[in-house]
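Quick review question:
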């Protein structure tokens, strides 16, 4: 599917799948719940949102696992810089994903564990 086949609404909802991860700043696990809610509501209506919603969910679950592991590593003092790096990395790639998704591109996150295919 190329970008000319995607409607403006489909691209908007695809972008929101990524941006809703910033709900983490509002409530715990918002980074998972935001994309999950949008994906569940729109996955049957738009194939692009189904794909990008799963991609966003997989990435946010992966980031949560990395954050837990890095939090444990605080004991040996390497966890603090790793958590800071993870925060900035996540912020940057989520913004990139949102922009590419709004352009109609099927974005794939780096360091993503694929739980849902």
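Suggested answer, residue by residue:
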């Amino acid at each position: 599917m190329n970008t000319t086949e995607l409607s403006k609404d489909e691209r908007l909802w695809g972008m929101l799948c990524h941006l809703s991860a910033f709900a983490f700043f509002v409530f715990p696990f918002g980074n998972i719940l935001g994309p999950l809610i949008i994906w569940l509501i729109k996955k049957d209506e738009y194939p692009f949102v189904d794909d990008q919603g799963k991609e966003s969910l997989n990435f946010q679950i992966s980031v949560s696992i990395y954050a837990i592991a890095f939090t444990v590593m605080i004991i040996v003092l390497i966890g603090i810089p790793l958590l800071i790096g993870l925060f900035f990395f996540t912020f940057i790639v989520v913004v990139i994903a949102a922009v590419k998704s709004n352009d109609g591109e099927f974005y794939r996150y780096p360091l993503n564990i694929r739980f849902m295919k």
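Why it works: The radius of gyration is 15 Å. The mean pLDDT is 93.
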